[in-house]
Design brief:
Length: 115
Protein backbone atom coordinates (compact mmCIF):
# COMPACT_ATOMS: atom_id res chain seq x y z
CA UNK A 1 0.00 0.00 0.00
CA UNK A 2 1.31 3.40 -0.91
CA UNK A 3 -0.49 5.50 1.69
CA UNK A 4 2.12 6.70 4.18
CA UNK A 5 0.08 8.39 6.88
CA UNK A 6 -3.12 10.02 7.96
CA UNK A 7 -4.03 12.68 10.49
CA UNK A 8 -7.68 12.39 11.41
CA UNK A 9 -10.17 14.87 12.75
CA UNK A 10 -10.30 13.21 16.18
CA UNK A 11 -6.85 14.65 16.72
CA UNK A 12 -7.47 17.95 14.95
CA UNK A 13 -10.81 18.93 16.48
CA UNK A 14 -10.53 16.93 19.71
CA UNK A 15 -14.07 15.59 19.70
CA UNK A 16 -14.37 13.15 16.80
CA UNK A 17 -17.48 15.00 15.64
CA UNK A 18 -16.45 15.44 12.01
CA UNK A 19 -14.83 13.28 9.38
CA UNK A 20 -11.75 14.31 7.44
CA UNK A 21 -8.06 13.77 7.06
CA UNK A 22 -5.20 13.63 4.63
CA UNK A 23 -3.82 11.00 2.30
CA UNK A 24 -0.10 11.09 1.50
CA UNK A 25 1.89 8.81 -0.75
CA UNK A 26 5.23 8.34 -2.45
CA UNK A 27 3.93 6.23 -5.32
CA UNK A 28 2.93 8.92 -7.81
CA UNK A 29 1.17 6.46 -10.13
CA UNK A 30 -0.92 5.09 -7.25
CA UNK A 31 -1.86 8.60 -6.13
CA UNK A 32 -2.89 9.56 -9.68
CA UNK A 33 -5.02 6.44 -10.20
CA UNK A 34 -6.35 4.55 -7.18
CA UNK A 35 -5.67 7.40 -4.76
CA UNK A 36 -7.51 9.89 -6.97
CA UNK A 37 -10.38 7.42 -7.42
CA UNK A 38 -10.68 7.00 -3.64
CA UNK A 39 -10.62 10.75 -3.08
CA UNK A 40 -13.31 11.36 -5.71
CA UNK A 41 -15.47 8.48 -4.53
CA UNK A 42 -15.22 9.21 -0.81
CA UNK A 43 -15.38 12.98 -1.17
CA UNK A 44 -12.52 15.42 -1.23
CA UNK A 45 -13.96 18.22 0.86
CA UNK A 46 -15.88 18.73 4.07
CA UNK A 47 -19.35 20.16 4.41
CA UNK A 48 -19.52 23.62 6.03
CA UNK A 49 -20.55 22.35 9.48
CA UNK A 50 -17.73 19.76 9.61
CA UNK A 51 -15.29 22.47 8.56
CA UNK A 52 -16.61 24.72 11.35
CA UNK A 53 -16.19 21.93 13.93
CA UNK A 54 -12.68 21.26 12.72
CA UNK A 55 -11.60 24.90 12.85
CA UNK A 56 -13.26 25.41 16.24
CA UNK A 57 -11.46 22.44 17.76
CA UNK A 58 -8.10 23.38 16.27
CA UNK A 59 -7.99 26.39 18.57
CA UNK A 60 -6.91 24.07 21.41
CA UNK A 61 -4.78 21.66 19.32
CA UNK A 62 -1.41 22.88 20.64
CA UNK A 63 -2.48 22.59 24.27
CA UNK A 64 -4.05 19.16 23.73
CA UNK A 65 -0.99 17.81 21.89
CA UNK A 66 1.36 19.01 24.63
CA UNK A 67 -0.79 17.19 27.20
CA UNK A 68 -1.02 14.04 25.02
CA UNK A 69 2.76 13.96 24.68
CA UNK A 70 3.38 14.61 28.37
CA UNK A 71 0.96 11.85 29.37
CA UNK A 72 2.43 9.44 26.80
CA UNK A 73 5.92 10.02 28.18
CA UNK A 74 4.77 9.26 31.72
CA UNK A 75 2.96 6.11 30.58
CA UNK A 76 6.00 5.01 28.55
CA UNK A 77 8.32 5.40 31.56
CA UNK A 78 5.88 3.52 33.79
CA UNK A 79 5.48 0.67 31.30
CA UNK A 80 9.22 0.46 30.68
CA UNK A 81 9.81 -0.23 34.37
CA UNK A 82 6.94 -2.74 34.64
CA UNK A 83 8.05 -6.36 35.03
CA UNK A 84 5.32 -7.74 32.74
CA UNK A 85 6.30 -5.51 29.78
CA UNK A 86 9.14 -6.73 27.58
CA UNK A 87 9.53 -3.63 25.39
CA UNK A 88 8.02 -0.17 24.95
CA UNK A 89 8.24 1.28 21.45
CA UNK A 90 7.98 5.07 21.87
CA UNK A 91 10.17 7.62 20.11
CA UNK A 92 10.17 9.81 23.21
CA UNK A 93 12.34 7.32 25.08
CA UNK A 94 16.07 7.97 24.74
CA UNK A 95 16.82 4.31 23.96
CA UNK A 96 14.46 4.21 20.95
CA UNK A 97 16.46 3.81 17.69
CA UNK A 98 14.70 6.81 16.10
CA UNK A 99 14.72 9.05 19.18
CA UNK A 100 17.41 11.42 17.86
CA UNK A 101 15.68 11.82 14.49
CA UNK A 102 12.28 12.36 16.08
CA UNK A 103 13.59 15.02 18.44
CA UNK A 104 15.42 16.72 15.56
CA UNK A 105 12.22 16.90 13.51
CA UNK A 106 9.60 17.58 16.21
CA UNK A 107 9.18 19.49 19.45
CA UNK A 108 7.36 16.53 21.03
CA UNK A 109 7.52 12.81 20.25
CA UNK A 110 3.77 12.36 19.85
CA UNK A 111 1.36 10.23 21.82
CA UNK A 112 1.45 6.89 19.98
CA UNK A 113 3.32 3.90 21.34
CA UNK A 114 3.28 0.14 21.24
CA UNK A 115 4.40 -2.45 23.73
Amino acid sequence: MSIRGAFNDKVLNGHGTSIGGIMLGRDIEFMRTKGLYARKTLGGNANPFDAFLLINGMKTLELRMERHCHNAMEVAHFLKSHAAIARVNYTGLADHPDHYTAMKQMRHPGAMMSL
